[in-house]
Amino acid sequence: MTQSILLMNMVQTSTSVLPFLGPDVATTYDAARVVILPIPYEATTTYHRGCENGTDSILEASQQVEYYDEELDAETCRDIGIYTYESIADTRNGSSVSSEAMLKVNRDTVSKLIGDGKFVISQFTAAKLVYKLIGYKALQTG
Question: What's this model's pTM, rounded to 2 decimal places?
Answer without folding.
Answer: 0.74
